[in-house]
What we know:
This protein is α/β, with parallel strands linked by helices. The protein has helices spanning 4-10, 24-32, 44-47, 59-71, 91-103, 119-128, 143-146, 156-171, 184-193, 214-217, 234-250; strands spanning 16-20, 37-40, 77-81, 109-113, 132-137, 176-180, 198-201, 209-212. It is built from 11 helices and 8 strands.
Amino acid sequence: MVSVRDVRAKAGDEPITMLTAYDAPTASIVDEAGVDVILVGDSVGNAVLGYETTVPVTFEQVAHHTGAVVRGTENALVVADMPFLSYGTDEAAAIENAGELLKEAGADAVKLECGPHTIELTRRMVELGIPVMAHLGLTPQHVNQYGGYPRQGTDRDGAERILELARAHGDAGAFSLVLEHVPSNLAAEVTEAVELPTIGIGAGPDCDGQVLVFHDAVGLSEWSPSFSKQFGDVRTAMQSAVSDYVEAVESREFPADEHGHVEPDLDELY
Ligand code: KIV
């Protein structure tokens, strides 16, 4: 079983691999491939639940999908993403929610989209035994404030803010840091400056690890961001399997004799 200590220890030695998953069969595929960390991202909203953004995703939905991923995982570290407003408004409620993801859903750690408001919360969670993965740069729960998904840290002030927040969350005890959609040179600088491992998405090659959304990586998404890469074409494979099924049923080719059975004793009844 991969632990948060293993993730920390891998940094600077070997690249850390992380992918999202939202259900048990996908988690088992990802786990069997040897991925270090499985993230039950609030990207479940876009990837699985048909929402345009992650804003509508509820705590109950993340807890439900986390349980499924945990049941499908044997080795990887499972990190549950805390959805919009399940933290950040009230410390006690945030800790209770994070605790439920660990105690009831079985996650190993939680991820928080971070800002100045999550520094003390990270410290408190870590003190209580809840490992925290921080997330800086593009934080999609701010989509309404950004008016889209713009690259972050592109000017000196923005870059310094990300660097400061990275240091502060490292000091508060976060065990790793996702850097999303920031310039590669900023990600390299942050990776050099902080002790906690950085895991990049759209953040260039110099982070300690990389993360992608499963549906983008295997080619199941209809659309994926330019910083993502498709390593397969699962959508075409699924479309072709479903078309073959429809054709086989319509032509009465399926089910064939081998897909059913005849009970000889019943012959007398007919
Ligand atoms: O929700 C998610 O999938 C994420 C990753 C893109 C890091 O936050």
